[in-house]
Amino acid sequence: MRKTKWTRRSFLKAASITAAGLGFSSVGCVLSQTVLRGKSLKGSRPNIVLVMADDQGWGQVGYNGHPHLKTPNLDTMAAAGIRFNRFYAASSVCSPTRASVLTGRIPGRTGVPGLHKRLCLQEKTLSQALKNADYTTAHFGKWHLNGVKGPGVPILPDCPNHPGRYGFDVWLSVTNFFDKDPLMSRNGKFEYLEGETSELMVTEALKFIQKQKDTPFFAVIWYGSPHFPWKAREEDIQGLPSGDKGKLAHHLGEIVAIDRSIGMLRQGLKDLGIEKDTLIWYCSDNGGLPEDPDSVGKLQGHKGSLYEGGIRVPGIIEWPGHIKPMITDFPASTMDIMPTIVDLLNLPEDCMLPVDGESIVPLFSGKTPQRSHPMTFIKGGIALIDGRFKLVQEGRGKQLDWSLYDLENDPGETSDISKKEPDRFEKMKTEAAQILKSVEASAQGKDYPEGRVIQPQRGEEWSKMQEYKPHFKTFTQLKPGFSVKVRRDKDKKSRN
Questions:
Q1: 456 within a domain of the structure (yes/no)
Q2: Does the N-terminal peptide bond of residue 229 adopt cis geometry, omega within 30 degrees of 0?
Q3: Which residues share a beta bridge with 167?
Q4: Alpha carbons 150 and 460: distance in angstroms, whole number
Q5: For position 86, which CATH number holds?
């Protein structure tokens, strides 16, 4: 495949020409041709571990100045690797961000524009690409890409959208958020585990890693914390503010446990002697919750919002001996994960569909990548981030206002500068319109060889699904206190 170096101007020109010819904007198709940079590390075959928290805000780490939380392991990891001041989840809610991690694409292209959606089976995933490159692949924890609503329950063995359908050899997973003493599915076999879930997932991942330590592996650890309903261990809430009925203490206490599990993971890799052969990429799936007044620092908005507090999250990459430790203001996102790893491993570009993310491998050696196009976020509106500038429109409709912010001077998004920067403002609005048309075309299946989406979408509550009803008795036998009714009640209170 011939590679072409695109500037943002030539990228948009090509997109608009293609749109005129095909009747839709093929922005995504142009993106996949962007030059993958970072030649010095190409061809490396490190083990890859992706770790993601569930609802951890940008401010909920010690190194970002949280007044109550202490996260010594995450702080140490951040000091030893690349610490992002501006790392972004691809969406302000979880399912779409998870789709972006596995595809490198704006979630709306993949069948997952919002919560409880199926990741389209026609997508090309990172796990498939690595499996085809002779990596052994595994998923541990929350899945939430199989179109099932409600608190996490075991994924059924015949589920058409279980992790194995997307390239995972091994999976110990649940449908959605989960808390201590979880009932899970190990490659389709139901299993009850006792303990704190972040520690459990890392323990299980390390068992997998120990078996694979002499061959390259890809492990995805998606925590169920610090998502509602917040059930931290008593020792983890000591010294933390209690909040309403102790909820805040338990919310923060789950992050204490996450931090401890990160220490377990890093130490486990050292004990196996493979820490220098393993790249760890840590982030959260969306912004923080309003229950913690410090969850997003001084940013505006929370989970569900396209303002910074809803999408800016902790981000760390560690690869001892290969990555130059640094703190960077370079903006990156979960959409960059797949193209970065594909670039690093020098995998064939056709292992990806047209992607929206870009390789950030140059950061590994202390260089600053150059983006060819803005980062785009779509959820109840649209936001574009182009370097220091951010365009935001939340909600739908012609009467809604657009805003432009200078994040370098105004990270809290308090001053709209659209009237001071009218040319930039109009240009970014034009870009946003083109991208929306492109995403709409992708959602209809235009990126796939078939030209359409084959599998119907789904978003059902498991307690009402015929497929699950025969298993309720087994769930009750395996997990003490399991109740379909109780879980329905909890689901009404959850934030998904």
A1: no
A2: yes
A3: none
A4: 8
A5: 3.40.720.10
Range of the domain at 293: 39-373
Average pLDDT over residues 196-206: 98
The reply to whether 437 falls in a domain is no
- Which pTM does this prediction carry? 0.91
For residue 445, what are the contacts with CB-CB under 8 A and spacing of at least 6?
Answer: 122, 451, 452, 453, 454
pLDDT of residue 26: 37
pLDDT at 41 over 90: no
As a whole number of angstroms, the distance between CA 470 and CA 480 comes to: 18
pLDDT of the residue at 19: 38
Buried/exposed code over 354-365 (b: 16+ C-beta within 10 A; e: otherwise) = bbbbbbbbbbbe
- Does residue 400 have a pLDDT over 50? yes
C-beta of residue 91 within 8 angstroms of C-beta of residue 106: no
pLDDT tens column, 316-327: 999 999 998 999
Which sign does the torsion angle of CA 96, 317, 173, 163 carry? Answer: positive
**CA 335/CA 342 separation, integer angstroms:** 12
pLDDT tens per residue across span 78-113? 999 999 999 999 999 999 999 999 999 999 999 999
Buried b (16+ CB within 10 A) or exposed e, 369-393: bebbbbbbbbbbbbbbbbeebbbbb
pLDDT of residue 86: 98
Strand partners, 383: 377, 392
Residue 293 Cα distances to 197, 376, 410, 493, angstroms: 25, 27, 20, 20
What is the percent of the chain with per-residue pLDDT over 70, rounded to a whole number? Answer: 88
**Residue 2 falls inside a structural domain:** no
CA distance linking residue 470 with residue 239, whole number of Å: 45
**Residue 495: band (very low, low, confident or very high) from pLDDT cuts 50, 70, 90:** low
User: Does any domain span residue 133?
Assistant: yes
What pLDDT does 251 receive? 98
Q: Which amino acid is at 172?
A: L
CB atoms near residue 273 (< 10 Å): 9
Amino acid 28: pLDDT: 37
CA 68 to chain CA centroid, Å, is 25
Number of structural domains (the chain) is 1
